[in-house]
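Regression check, NDP case 253:
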Amino acid sequence: MGTLDGTVALITGASSGIGEAAAEALAERGAAVALAARRGDRLNELAKRIEAGGGQALVIEADITDREQAEGVVQKTVEELGRLDTLVNNAGMMLLGPVVGAPVEEWERMVSINVMGLLYCAHAALPHLLAAAESDPRRVADMVNISSVAGRVARSGSGVYNATKHGVGAFSEALRQEVTGRYVRISLVEPGAVATELAGHNRPEIRETIQQRFEDVERLQAPDIADTIAYIVTRPRHMAINEMLIRPTQQLG
Ligand code: NDP
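Current build output:
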């Protein structure tokens, strides 16, 4: 028996990287998982793997920068799986580069997913998380927000990504104070460099800069962060992990 038996988890950005690994980790521990992202083919492959392992998975193809679609993701999860105990707010983008002369469209994309997408999902999920926290089997519920080392430390060349992730940290702490007394735990995870598709969306010259920065660093793998998320949501009811900063051992800043 897994410790998440009888619970439901929604993972945004489950089509690759950290979200995909987190969905597998929570399913392994007994949660029924709702998988949200835009790439339905990738979600379907993941759902097949989870089901082949004896788990239950629901695919929800959606762009959560659209408020109605984000709300629809939460609604469909609850309609099809019956409840919502855990929300992993993971979907995000990292488009780096100098502020001077930056394509503002890149900022709009990052703010709309890293901030607004997360806020839409959090807002829609909260009534269901509060209800789950009042019911068996756990009498506690979780929202895990994926920030970054970039949400702690600002660097030249990461200004707007820094702004979005610092925003996620501030929102998480304020929300934590609002709902923790009702047994909804709000946790912040701040990974350093993880080997995923994240950097690949940058312009070629920026990709090169990122590659050079982490050339000699043995990066984290998505399952390392998934393991952290699983640890956070399987703590006893009286114990809340508020924040986890996780760097590759060799990463300095
Ligand atoms: P990936 O690029 O592999 O995953 C990002 C996920 O977000 C994808 O599943 C993508 O799915 C989804 N996504 C992006 N835009 C949307 C959208 N509009 N609607 C729904 N889903 C969307 O990168 P990671 O796994 O690395 O990133 C996950 C999180 O971890 C991000 O918040 C990132 O900032 C954070 N992080 C990553 C680090 C790293 O080094 N990799 C370090 C620190 C933090 P699809 O394209 O199918 O919609």
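Comparison notes: Helices lie at 17-28, 40-52, 67-81, 104-133, 159-179, 204-213, 222-233. The chain has one domain: 8-246. No diff flagged against the previous build.
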